[in-house]
Amino acid sequence: MNVGRMRYRIDIEDYISSTDLDGFVTEDWNNFATVWADIIPVSGKEYFSSAQILEEVTNKIYIRYISSIKTTMRIIFGDRIFNIQSILSDERHGFITIMAKEIV
């Protein structure tokens, strides 16, 4: 992976639930990290489900190595949202390949 190709600034968000002083549970997405990345579309398909057209786009997202990234997190790039499907870490070379599905 060429570091120079990482030209997109993305936010990685983690889903956090917390309880306030009154006992109410608050669930929200909190910023985990803001990093440079390369986003490459891998596949896309359309299908019909319950009279709706659904689109599914899978992307490879390359970032520098972060040890505590999880598949329960999501990625924000501008107005695009990606759900993380799998994480392939190459700790020796210092990169992570994230397979993510774009929410359309």
- Widest β-sheet, arrangement of strands: 1-2-3-6-5-4
Quote the beta fraction.
over 45%
Mean pLDDT across all amino acids: 86
The global form is globular
Class per helix and strand makeup: mainly beta
Q: Estimate the helix proportion, in percent.
A: under 10%
Largest sheet: 6 strands, antiparallel, barrel
Q: Using DSSP, what is the number of strands? A: 6
CA radius of gyration is 16 Å
Number of helices: 0
Distance between the termini: 28 Å
Sequence stretches where pLDDT stays below 50 over 5 or more residues: none
Oligomeric state of the chains present here: single chain
From N to C, what is the helix and strand string? EEEEEE
Description:
The chain has no helices and 6 strands. It is globular. It is mainly beta and 104 residues long. A hairpin with a 4-residue loop joins strand 5 and strand 6. 0% of the residues lie in helices and 71% in strands. Strands 1-2-3-6-5-4 form a 6-stranded antiparallel beta barrel.
